[in-house]
Amino acid sequence: CGEQPLQGRKIIVTAGGTIEPLDPVRYLGNHSTGKMGYAIAAEAAKLGAEVLLVSGPSNLADPAGVKTVRIQTALEMQAAVQAAYAKADAVIMSAAVADYRPKTVAKDKIKKSDDELVLHLERNPDILYGLGQQKDKQILVGFAAETCNVEEYAKKKLSKKNLDFIVANDVSAKDAGFAVDNNRVQIYFRNGECEKYPLMSKQELAGIILNKIVEMM
Ligand code: C5P
């Protein structure tokens, strides 16, 4: 079974994208598959942690030894994370949370017409920002998927969301990021340090992220 440095620790991991319904048959969504978060949850369980995985819709199977809760919307993800936050030792937010949701959800299927269709969207809460505001002993880890200015945006999010570290990647790269098994990241820490990693499997990256958390504990 190997070493279990996270024995007795409670870790919340979020994964996948949230989906925001428009009507009974349509939704707004994104390309996240959940691979990164599921790899982190599985690895954390192997290291002995009690893991709650809060996942948006994903084709991946529930990881062994992990309590998996499946949700659809950002508001549902927020409620599931909040319910477990007070007792958590660490939260790793790898989910691609929708920043906006349709202001109204049509009761019946929206019918097409010859006119333009205008959708009104309202802001979803920033779940991680909220956790950062209430932070007590929890180690908070965020992800920043960017298509440009990775360093600048990642550092801003680290500070604004009161995180311990943020894992940043350029999702415009074809060989890493969304929907593939590999990732190439930089990790930015509170003290201003940055570590750059080469292309590696999401499983290997999960191990690196969890080792950082073990060191901080
Ligand atoms: O979307 P953004 O780049 O700000 O995401 C950075 C981090 O914040 C990620 O870890 C993501 O899971 C989290 N986030 C969140 N709630 C949102 C948007 C992002 O918790 N509404």
TrEMBL record:
Q: Name one GO biological process term.
A: coenzyme A biosynthetic process
Q: Which family does it belong to?
A: In the N-terminal section; belongs to the HFCD (homo-oligomeric flavin containing Cys decarboxylase) superfamily.
Q: What is its EC number?
A: 4.1.1.36, 6.3.2.5
> One GO CC annotation, please?
phosphopantothenoylcysteine decarboxylase complex
Taxonomic superkingdom: Bacteria
Quote the cofactor binding remark.
Binds 1 FMN per subunit.
Signal sequence coordinates: none
What is catalyzed by this enzyme?
N-[(R)-4-phosphopantothenoyl]-L-cysteine + H(+) = (R)-4'-phosphopantetheine + CO2; (R)-4'-phosphopantothenate + L-cysteine + CTP = N-[(R)-4-phosphopantothenoyl]-L-cysteine + CMP + diphosphate + H(+)
Query: MF terms per GO, please?
Result: FMN binding; metal ion binding; phosphopantothenate--cysteine ligase activity; phosphopantothenoylcysteine decarboxylase activity
Q: Which UniProt keywords apply?
A: Decarboxylase, Flavoprotein, FMN, Ligase, Lyase, Magnesium, Metal-binding, Multifunctional enzyme
User: For the DNA/pantothenate metabolism flavoprotein C-terminal domain, which residue ranges apply?
Assistant: 6-215
Q: Which cofactor does it need?
A: FMN; Mg(2+)
Which amino acid positions bind CTP, per UniProt?
99, 109, 125-128, 143, 157, 161
Its biological purpose is as follows: Catalyzes two steps in the biosynthesis of coenzyme A. In the first step cysteine is conjugated to 4'-phosphopantothenate to form 4-phosphopantothenoylcysteine, in the latter compound is decarboxylated to form 4'-phosphopantotheine. Catalyzes two sequential steps in the biosynthesis of coenzyme A. In the first step cysteine is conjugated to 4'-phosphopantothenate to form 4-phosphopantothenoylcysteine. In the second step the latter compound is decarboxylated to form 4'-phosphopantotheine.
Protein's pathway: Cofactor biosynthesis; coenzyme A biosynthesis; CoA from (R)-pantothenate: step 2/5; Cofactor biosynthesis; coenzyme A biosynthesis; CoA from (R)-pantothenate: step 3/5
Task: For the region Phosphopantothenate--cysteine ligase, give the residue spans.
Answer: 11-217
Q: Per its record, how is this protein called by name?
A: Coenzyme A biosynthesis bifunctional protein CoaBC
